[in-house]
Amino acid sequence: xxxxxxxxxxxxxxxxxxxxxxxxxxxxxxxxxxxxxxxxxxxxxxxxxxxxxxxxxxxxxxxxxxxxxxxxx
Length: 73
Prior knowledge:
Elements: H1 2-23, E1 28-29, E2 35-36, H2 48-72
Antiparallel strand pairs: 1-2
Helix pairs in contact: 1-2
Protein backbone atom coordinates (compact mmCIF):
# COMPACT_ATOMS: atom_id res chain seq x y z
CA UNK A 1 0.00 0.00 0.00
CA UNK A 2 2.84 2.35 0.87
CA UNK A 3 4.54 1.80 -2.48
CA UNK A 4 1.26 2.42 -4.29
CA UNK A 5 0.75 5.73 -2.48
CA UNK A 6 4.27 6.84 -3.34
CA UNK A 7 3.83 5.78 -6.97
CA UNK A 8 0.54 7.66 -7.32
CA UNK A 9 2.03 10.74 -5.66
CA UNK A 10 5.06 10.66 -7.96
CA UNK A 11 2.78 10.33 -10.99
CA UNK A 12 0.69 13.31 -9.88
CA UNK A 13 3.76 15.46 -9.29
CA UNK A 14 5.16 14.50 -12.69
CA UNK A 15 1.83 15.42 -14.28
CA UNK A 16 1.83 18.80 -12.55
CA UNK A 17 5.32 19.47 -13.89
CA UNK A 18 4.90 18.15 -17.43
CA UNK A 19 1.37 19.25 -18.37
CA UNK A 20 2.04 23.02 -18.38
CA UNK A 21 5.06 22.58 -20.63
CA UNK A 22 3.08 20.36 -22.98
CA UNK A 23 0.31 22.95 -23.13
CA UNK A 24 2.89 25.65 -23.91
CA UNK A 25 3.83 23.82 -27.12
CA UNK A 26 0.74 25.35 -28.76
CA UNK A 27 2.50 28.68 -29.32
CA UNK A 28 3.72 29.39 -32.82
CA UNK A 29 6.89 31.22 -33.85
CA UNK A 30 6.36 33.77 -36.60
CA UNK A 31 9.00 34.52 -39.22
CA UNK A 32 10.08 37.64 -37.32
CA UNK A 33 11.13 35.59 -34.31
CA UNK A 34 8.24 36.73 -32.11
CA UNK A 35 5.94 34.16 -30.60
CA UNK A 36 2.27 34.33 -31.35
CA UNK A 37 -0.30 32.46 -29.33
CA UNK A 38 -3.89 31.61 -30.12
CA UNK A 39 -6.46 34.05 -28.70
CA UNK A 40 -7.21 33.65 -25.03
CA UNK A 41 -10.56 32.27 -23.93
CA UNK A 42 -12.87 34.64 -22.05
CA UNK A 43 -12.07 34.81 -18.36
CA UNK A 44 -14.49 34.49 -15.52
CA UNK A 45 -14.16 31.35 -13.52
CA UNK A 46 -12.25 28.18 -13.02
CA UNK A 47 -11.98 26.04 -16.10
CA UNK A 48 -11.39 22.28 -16.12
CA UNK A 49 -7.77 22.87 -17.13
CA UNK A 50 -7.26 24.65 -13.80
CA UNK A 51 -9.39 22.37 -11.66
CA UNK A 52 -7.69 19.10 -12.60
CA UNK A 53 -4.16 20.06 -11.49
CA UNK A 54 -5.55 21.72 -8.36
CA UNK A 55 -7.50 18.59 -7.46
CA UNK A 56 -4.47 16.41 -8.19
CA UNK A 57 -2.33 18.58 -5.93
CA UNK A 58 -4.84 18.40 -3.09
CA UNK A 59 -5.26 14.64 -3.38
CA UNK A 60 -1.50 14.09 -3.61
CA UNK A 61 -0.84 16.28 -0.59
CA UNK A 62 -3.53 14.44 1.34
CA UNK A 63 -2.04 11.05 0.47
CA UNK A 64 1.45 12.12 1.44
CA UNK A 65 0.16 13.60 4.70
CA UNK A 66 -1.76 10.41 5.46
CA UNK A 67 1.32 8.30 4.74
CA UNK A 68 3.46 10.46 7.04
CA UNK A 69 0.94 10.30 9.88
CA UNK A 70 0.65 6.52 9.60
CA UNK A 71 4.42 6.12 9.49
CA UNK A 72 4.94 8.02 12.75
CA UNK A 73 2.63 5.74 14.73
